[in-house]
């Protein structure tokens, strides 16, 4: 333990630093911060003279992240920044209190003066490198980059260590890049470890379950593909009642890819945070005195390769497909209010939405008020939808729910394969609804979701 005087000096130094602003360096900028997922690196245990090393470390971590799937495909959805926070000392604490190794383990016991108070031996686990000084972490973010989506603390030590949680933490030694990616899997994308994480952390999740029926397990859409199955966690006791989707995923081992189930979960979280519609024109509330042809355009955040698909309808009739701009002539319009809508969704093979609980769609709607003399005005509105339909397949009851920023209701239509309407219902925003399908014959049906008269999504329904 440090002498009391040193502790008081340390406490005073921290208290005057809280609220201080630091230099912020952009590492990767793909677009406006309010339209991207912002990863923010902060360093602990880097002295003022080591901040260039911190930026280099953060850049290396960023480059490694976006070299691996699915981040390589969705790199343009992210910005990356580094906040240069100096510490008084290099390194991090190692109190030597771990019970899972013989201490001191690899590095001497130490107690150093760092800004965020990171430490090995968290919860008596040597490699658990973390800090409970969350107020300091969030003060720095609030004062320097309040638009953060995921904080990542890089600790200036070569000893292996890291942790997930509200902020991801990693050392800089061997496998450090892999640690960061793994911990971001926890912190931002809600993925579980695919080695058994312990009874306190075991729970139903994207890639963890106690369900063993391959027809209803949450990753049923992937079972039998790309090595996905239902694999029992090794060990004894409660571990034997939990299962993972893959035997060789990054959430289990460093240096290997994410499994298909985790990739799907990552991409779905990306779509829940950021719309692929970066901009659109006309994009103000009202366009006065426009002339023909009327031009409408999307500016999309495209995956690489581009897997975004679009459907344009004019007055509920198909107008164009998989294009980013259209032109409308006077002959395309009727007198009065005309509605042009484009629906955008991601058709990537990384997502298997037919048998999945939720999916995302995004729309822009322009209302064109036309008379025989001229277009009076054009009004625009953008929207996004998170639609849930589960279980699928199902026997008796289908659960429906959607979330949207502006739309109050969706119309839902269940149709047979030959085009006959079987069931119609109205679904209210943020409210769950159950549809009784027990009287339907076994087979495949189509569930259509309409906003007004515009079809925004279709999903296959399997009745057992």
TrEMBL record:
Example of a GO MF term: metallopeptidase activity
Keyword DNA repair part of the UniProt annotation: no
Keywords noted in UniProt: Signal
Domain Secretion system C-terminal sorting: 389-460
One of the Pfam families matching this protein, by short name: Peptidase_M64
Signal listed as a keyword: yes
Name this protein carries in UniProt: Peptidase M64
UniProt source species: Algibacter marinivivus
């Amino acid at each position: 333990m440090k002498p009391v005087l040193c502790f008081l000096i340390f406490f005073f130094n921290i208290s005057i630093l809280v609220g201080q602003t630091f230099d912020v360096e952009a590492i990767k900028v793909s677009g406006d911060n309010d339209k991207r997922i912002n990863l923010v690196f902060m360093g602990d245990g880097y002295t003022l003279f080591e901040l260039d090393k911190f930026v280099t470390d953060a850049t290396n971590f960023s480059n490694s992240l976006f070299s691996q799937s699915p981040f390589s495909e969705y790199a343009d959805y992210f910005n990356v920044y580094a906040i240069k926070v100096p510490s008084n000392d290099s390194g991090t604490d190692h109190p030597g209190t771990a019970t899972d190794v013989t201490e001191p383990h690899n590095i001497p016991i130490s107690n150093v003066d760092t800004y965020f108070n990171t430490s090995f031996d968290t919860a008596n686990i040597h490699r658990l490198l973390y800090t409970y000084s969350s107020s300091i972490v969030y003060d720095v973010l609030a004062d320097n980059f309040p638009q953060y989506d995921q904080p990542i603390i890089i600790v200036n030590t070569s000893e292996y260590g890291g942790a997930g949680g509200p902020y991801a933490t990693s050392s800089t030694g061997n496998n450090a890049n892999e640690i960061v990616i793994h911990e971001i899997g926890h912190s931002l994308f809600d993925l579980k470890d695919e080695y058994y994480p312990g009874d306190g952390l075991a729970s139903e999740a994207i890639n963890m379950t106690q369900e063993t029926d391959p027809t209803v397990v949450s990753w049923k859409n992937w079972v039998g593909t790309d090595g996905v199955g239902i694999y029992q966690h090794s060990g004894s006791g409660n571990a034997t009642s939990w299962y993972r989707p893959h035997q060789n995923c990054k959430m289990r081992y460093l240096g290997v890819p994410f499994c298909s189930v985790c990739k799907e979960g990552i991409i779905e979280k990306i779509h829940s945070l950021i719309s692929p519609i970066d901009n659109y024109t006309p994009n103000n509330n009202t366009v006065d005195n426009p002339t023909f042809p009327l031009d409408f355009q999307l500016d999309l955040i495209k995956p690489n390769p581009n897997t975004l698909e679009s459907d344009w309808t004019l007055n509920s009739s198909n107008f164009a497909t998989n294009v980013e701009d259209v032109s409308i002539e006077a002959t395309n319009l009727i007198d009065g209010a005309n509605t042009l809508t484009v629906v955008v969704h991601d058709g990537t093979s990384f997502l298997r939405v037919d048998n999945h609980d939720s999916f995302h769609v995004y729309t822009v709607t322009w209302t064109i008020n036309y008379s025989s003399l001229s277009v009076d005005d054009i009004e625009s509105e953008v929207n996004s939808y998170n639609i849930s339909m589960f279980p699928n397949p199902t026997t008796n009851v289908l659960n429906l729910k959607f979330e949207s920023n502006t739309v109050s209701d969706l119309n839902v239509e269940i149709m047979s394969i030959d085009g006959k309407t079987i069931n119609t219902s109205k679904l209210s925003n943020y409210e769950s609804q159950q549809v009784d399908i027990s009287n339907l014959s076994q087979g495949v049906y189509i569930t259509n979701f309409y906003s007004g008269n515009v079809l925004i999504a279709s999903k296959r329904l399997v009745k057992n």
